[in-house]
Amino acid sequence: MSVPLWAWFAVLGVILVMLAVDLVAHRKAHVIGVREAAAWSIVWVVLGVSFGVLVWSLWGAEFGQQYFAGYLIEKSLAVDNVFVWAIIFAAFAVPREYQHRVLFLGVLGALIFRGIFIAAGAALIENFAWILYVFAAFLIYTGWRMFRSRNDHIHPEKSKILKAFRRFVPMTDAYHGQKFLIRKAGIVVATPLLAVLVLVEITDIIFAVDSIPAIFAVTSEPFLVFTANAFAILGLRAMYFLLADLIHRFIYLKVGLAFVLIWVGIKMLLLDVLYIPTTISLAVVATIITVSIVASLRATRGQGRREVQTEAAGAFRLASDEELAAAEPVFRRRGRVPAERKVSSDD
């Protein structure tokens, strides 16, 4: 697959433009409802599918199918990521109107980290072909581990990362709007929103460790790996606001994701022994995900939307008007002297 340099820049340009549009559309903190989340989800899916159609028309059916297989795998694994975000937000009692800012920066970080992982993975595969067998074994093990722990949930309040953050970074227990840092009594301190952002970024990195090897099982083209990842990740924020209150209904999704990882691991393991066409891989992944979702919704029919319930990671609250007024700017202008400390030249 020969991809000209301008195609890379064109894709990056589209991503940056869409991120800018999303940021402008959500520049004011507000609660994102189901209708708004559904509308944005449709926009991101149409964008991702349209790009796949473009790949199909420019580079042929094989590469088009590889893109769609990778896109479907990344989109499916992203649902599990969304559920983890919901638990983190619930543990920190993050007001809904502030969640989009965290997710926007989280997704931006995820794009950067995944770009690095994809470049590293492509370099390893090109120089050490045997690394594919390591990826395959890792995927099978990860799938088996996910199946065994399908009923377990993360506990942000017990996170070692959170404990380390609290140990080394002074933090207030009050949310000051969408600010991540404030200056309190002359000292820069973090708000709970920064701790949440750190945990979101760390979970993105952990999920990337699973998903990047998985997509290399269906395509070895860095361009397809990156674009499938990018277009799947771009819709995560909207997906979160659409599905966060429905976690309790997707009871078999983790089982489906486990089988997907095991399947792509086996496919990669048999790469030099048995060639499995991309069409079959795409069909198998789509079938597994569809069956797990339909079975989940049928088993939980009649249940409505409800907020995630989990153990609190601390006693967090909204800052009072007095606290908001007393908060000082984090960055001060040099040479600026507070008014109360100014001394007249006649003194």
TrEMBL record:
One of its GO terms (cellular component) is membrane. It holds the Pfam family TerC. Keywords: Membrane, Transmembrane, Transmembrane helix. The chain crosses the membrane at residues 6-25, 37-58, 78-95, 102-124, 130-147, 185-208, 223-243, 250-270, 276-297. It is a multi-pass membrane protein. Its main location: membrane. The keyword Membrane applies. InterPro entries: Integral_membrane_TerC (IPR005496), Integral_membrane_TerC_rswitch (IPR022369). It is found in: Membrane. NCBIfam families: R_switched_Alx. Belongs to the TerC family. This is Tellurium resistance protein TerC. It comes from Microbacterium aerolatum. The lineage of its organism: Bacteria, Bacillati, Actinomycetota, Actinomycetes, Micrococcales.
